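Complex 256.
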Amino acid sequence: MRRFLIAGNWKMNLGPAETTTFFEEMKTLTADVSDGAEVLVCTPFVSLPAAVDAAAAIAGFKVGAQNMHFEDNGAYTGETSAAMLNELGCSYVILGHSERREYFGETDAIVGKKVVRALGADLTPVLCVGEVLAQRKANEQNDVVATQLKGALSGLTPDQIGRTVIAYEPVWAIGTGEVASPQQAQDMHQFIRSVLTELAGKDVADSVRVLYGGSMKPDNAEELLGQPDVDGGLIGGASMKAGSLFKIVEIANKLS
Ligand code: PEP
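Predicted structure with phosphoenolpyruvate bound:
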């Protein structure tokens, strides 16, 4: 049986009050997500305490952050460490999202340091990779994704890589309504596993969960999650309403 990971990325949306409302709605839909797909939402930092509190009422529902610093503490004004996220009750952290790369200058080397630190604090990193439209048009997507994966993961042990989740997010499909075709997703996920095989061996590569992200919604989730190498979704817009996130969870459960 496949165990999908359905992860919401709220970006800079839903403050603490809206977070509480989201979970009130989610609670009317389910009291327990511990059996089927693993479910989590990654909220803004300020909404994490509200999310962790409210998620406790839904068995198995997890909470994650969208970023963190690679140092444990120190003079890094405005930053948050992995240990702090763990103390709050987070179990996942998104790292290297394309918006962090584009607007905040995050490089593969920085993202790699964050992955190591997250793992050291018992957080599961969701490492995002993906090409922009011009790179897809030039058929450079494999080179781009291989460089991102190797840039972030080369210094890691197979065990560390095995505890990392990869999210393939073609940048041209994020927030645009344009979605990768199921075949494009499958081809890239298979390619990602081949790069992971080079880095950590086939057993690890086969066990790592590779999520698809980019305009996943209830009406396209089934064909994307139906691909053999798609192990779940990283979902922005459609994760901010309890109803639409839950529909995707139900689709994943049906496919399990
Ligand atoms: C994302 O934020 O990672 C994402 C995939 O967004 P959307 O689903 O809105 O395209």
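The radius of gyration is 17 Å.
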